[in-house]
């Protein structure tokens, strides 16, 4: 037999929105459970917390053969709590559920808990608040409430708890609520933002820690998803960091969501995290071939375009051909080559600058190759040439030589 602190029969519970109080139970034992050589007991009681007698909860934890470890009263200055229930898990942690109301609170549900290493609940948490006043005596003159609340262990892990209770849903109507709770820490993910070019690669990274100590978790397989689609996984190292090299598919450059998550297990609650993946246009490069035409001929000029992310030719794009500082034309790249037929002016001679340019589009960045040269040679022979001679007033003979196109030959040799 164990002696405990005094207790008393609770008065009817005050409620918001209804002057008629809720009838609660007497101080009989309502719930008893046993685990880890410890006995857990709870019942209704009453105590004065400074504003008169209020309904409260008494609960105890007895260590078999050693005595009372916990003898606690859970109560509030301006509120009543009643109909308590208790359960204990494999670790010896306790979970209590109970009703709660007052002049400023409809009939609601609260929850309290105490770990095996603790000697009191240290407060209570809301489960759900009531929404209306309640009175229903079914002609018997007793506005009874809540026979009974419940708490039990979830034997899936032997650590979590289920609670059940009722609250005032609408005027004169009640509704049950079921919830689940535990003391397990949660997985915590810190996902790093990433960026990369389409058709390239980027490294996805996430750090996994535990919520109670913030310690890193090593050796866990972390799945990575992009906008809800699984793309791969990585294993956390000693610092809790997991990485995965993601090959970015060809798509319109935009932003996507990187997400990581792990489901609840026997040690941890579920956890997740997310960050933004910024997908950029792919960089490109053009290469223009040097050319050595003869003046006055038509010469094919060549260049090609490729993306630098994977060194792949990009066919179907229009490339510009620039010679001697001016745009001379463009051509579409087909079969890995863009070809433009250029009529070389007859008067050209020597080295001319030449470059290729790609203006870019929705998927690709612009690029240019300034390194091309055109070396223009004079014709080696002419099919005909003409000379026009005139005498000046001073008596000097003036002669103008014309090439086979009728263009004057300037500072050139005539054969």
SSE blueprint:
Layout: E1 13-15, E2 18-22, E3 29-35, E4 38-48, E5 53-63, E6 67-74, E7 79-88, E8 94-102, E9 105-114, E10 125-128, E11 150-154, E12 160-170, E13 173-181, E14 187-191, E15 194-197, E16 201-210, E17 221-226, E18 229-235, E19 241-247, E20 255-262, E21 271-280, E22 284-288, E23 298-307, E24 312-313, E25 318-323, E26 326-332, E27 338-343, E28 350-358, E29 367-376, E30 386-391, E31 397-402
Parallel strand pairs: 15-21
Antiparallel strand pairs: 1-2, 3-4, 4-5, 5-6, 7-8, 8-9, 9-10, 11-12, 12-13, 14-16, 16-19, 17-18, 17-20, 20-21, 22-23, 23-24, 23-27, 25-26, 25-28, 28-29, 30-31
Explain how this protein is built.
The chain is mostly beta strands and 415 residues long. Helices cover 0% and strands 55% of the residues. The chain has no helices and 31 strands. It has a five-stranded mixed β-sheet, with no helix packed on it. The protein has a four-stranded antiparallel β-sheet with strand order 3-4-5-6, with no helix packed on it. Strand 5 and strand 6 form a beta hairpin. The chain starts with 12 loop residues before the first strand and ends in a 13-residue tail after the last strand. Mean pLDDT is 91; it is low at 382-392.
Short structural description:
With 415 residues, the protein is mainly beta.
Highlighted features:
55% strand, rod-shaped, 5-stranded mixed beta sheet, mainly beta, 4-stranded antiparallel beta sheet, 415 residues
Number of helices: 0
Secondary-structure-derived class: mainly beta
- Mean pLDDT level: 91
The profile of the biggest β sheet is:
5 strands, mixed
């Amino acid at each position: 037999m164990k002696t405990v602190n005094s207790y008393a029969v609770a008065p009817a519970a005050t409620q918001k929105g209804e002057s008629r109080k809720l009838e609660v139970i007497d101080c009989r034992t309502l719930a008893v459970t046993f685990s880890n050589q410890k006995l857990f007991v709870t019942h209704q009681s009453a105590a004065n917390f400074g504003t008169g007698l209020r309904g409260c909860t008494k609960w105890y934890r007895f260590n078999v053969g050693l005595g009372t470890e916990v003898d606690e009263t859970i109560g509030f200055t301006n509120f009543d709590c009643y109909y308590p229930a208790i359960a204990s898990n494999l670790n010896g942690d306790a979970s209590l559920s109970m009703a709660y109301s007052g002049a400023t609170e409809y009939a609601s549900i609260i929850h309290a808990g105490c770990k095996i290493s603790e000697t009191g609940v240290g407060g209570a948490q809301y489960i759900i608040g009531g929404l209306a006043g309640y009175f229903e005596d079914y002609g018997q003159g007793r506005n009874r409430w809540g026979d009974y609340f419940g708490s039990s262990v979830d034997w899936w892990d032997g650590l979590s708890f289920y609670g059940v209770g009722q609250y005032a849903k609408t005027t004169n109507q009640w509704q049950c609520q079921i919830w689940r709770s535990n003391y397990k820490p949660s997985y915590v993910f810190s996902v790093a933002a990433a960026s990369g070019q389409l058709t390239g690669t980027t490294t996805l990274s996430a750090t996994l820690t535990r919520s109670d100590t913030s310690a890193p978790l090593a050796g866990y397989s972390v799945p990575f998803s992009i906008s809800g689609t699984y793309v791969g996984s990585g294993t956390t190292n000693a610092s809790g960091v997991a990485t995965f090299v993601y090959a970015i598919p060809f798509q319109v450059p935009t932003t996507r969501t990187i997400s990581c998550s792990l489901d609840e297990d026997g040690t941890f609650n579920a956890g997740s995290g997310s960050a933004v993946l910024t997908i950029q246009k792919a960089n490109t490069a053009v290469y223009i071939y040097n050319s050595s035409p003869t003046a006055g001929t038509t010469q094919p000029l060549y260049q090609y375009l490729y993306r630098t992310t994977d060194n792949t030719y990009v066919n179907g794009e229009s490339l510009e051909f620039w010679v001697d500082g001016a745009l001379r034309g463009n051509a579409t790249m087909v079969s890995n080559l863009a070809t433009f037929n250029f009529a070389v002016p007859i008067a050209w001679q020597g080295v001319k600058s030449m470059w290729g340019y790609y203006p870019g589009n929705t998927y690709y960045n612009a690029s240019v190759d300034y390194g091309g040269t055109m070396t223009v040679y004079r014709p080696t022979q002419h099919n005909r040439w003409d000379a026009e001679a005139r005498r000046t007033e001073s008596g000097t003979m003036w002669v103008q030589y014309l090439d086979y196109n009728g263009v004057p030959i300037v500072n050139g040799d005539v054969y």
